[in-house]
Amino acid sequence: MNAFAPKCPSTLQSPLVARETRRRRAAWTYAFVAGERYARLAIPTPWSNAGDDLHSALIESLAPLRQGDTVMISEKVAVLLTGRAVPIDSCRPGRLAHVLARAVRPRPGSRGLSVPEKMQFVLGEVGYPRLLVAALASAVTRPFGFAGVLYKVAGSVARDTDGGRPPYEDRVCPPLRRDDATELCAALDDLLGVGVAVVDLNDYGGSVRGVSRRALPASILLGALADNPLVQRSTSTPFGIVWPDTLSVPAASSASTPEWA
Question: Same domain, yes or no, for 80 and 119?
Fold first, then answer.
């Protein structure tokens, strides 16, 4: 039996899947971590909605999978499709949230906590005293060229809360707790038969929220995904695959595409 036999349900094994596999081959990109090459594939999908099911979306999008794969899932989409996102209209901003939101200077292409509803949500999560201290620290240090102090002092909820902009302008997506992310990865590992990781990536860095037992280690994933291969915002690629390229291309080969189709 082929050691890399697909692990997805037999109903997905068809000529259509084979053609899709060949089409995807050209989309592989690569990264080197500690001298080893890793192949990455971002998977385009339709835009996900809050009523969609994460399990179904993965099965439909990721076939075929092979032993050695680690499936990566955008944290925002994991939150959205597991019912953890909060309707933004339930976060009614008070005066303080409006004042603090106006003082936020988000990075280009981001809104951060400049959205009053997100600021109100974070106030409720981290507490008014801590966020006020964070805002004061930011105001004092900004003239000296320090950036991101508010998020460093206020903590991960302030830094990692997402949503409030298209295509999810109607939702606030809080970060997954590491225990919840690890539990979700374990359940999806059992479903898919391969490793699973929930990742929070952007063009400025990222983190690995949780990994399953068959996934690549978080330290390897951080290096392999440092350039944010999912991109996501404009490309609708919330899922992806990472695997050690030694599984698909012999060490002496100069091939640029894994021979897995």
Answer: no
Q: CATH number, domain at 197?
A: 3.30.1330
CB atoms within 10 A of CB 141: 16
- Across 174-202, average pLDDT: 95
User: What pLDDT, on a 0 to 100 scale, did the predictor assign at position 47?
Assistant: 74
- The length of the chain in residues reads 261
Task: Look at the chain and report how many structural domains it folds into.
Answer: 2
Both 76 and 191 in one domain: the answer is yes
In eight-state DSSP terms, residue 193 is S
pLDDT at 59 over 50: yes
Decide: helix, strand or coil at residue 194: coil
**Which among 152, 172, 192 is the end of a domain?**
172
- Higher pLDDT pick, 49 / 120: 120
Q: Is the pTM of this model over 0.70?
A: yes
Q: How many CB atoms lie within 10 A of CB 136?
A: 13
The Cα-based distances of 243 to 28, 131, 134, 259 in angstroms read 11, 40, 40, 13
pLDDT value of position 62: 85
pLDDT at 252: 31
In a domain, 256, yes or no: no
Distance CA 28, CA 37 (A): 12
Final residue of a structural domain among 143, 172, 201: 172
Cα gap 44→32, rounded to integer Å: 23
Q: How far apart are the first and last CA of the chain?
A: 16
- Taking only the tens place, the pLDDT of each residue in 68-87 is 999 999 999 999 999 999 99
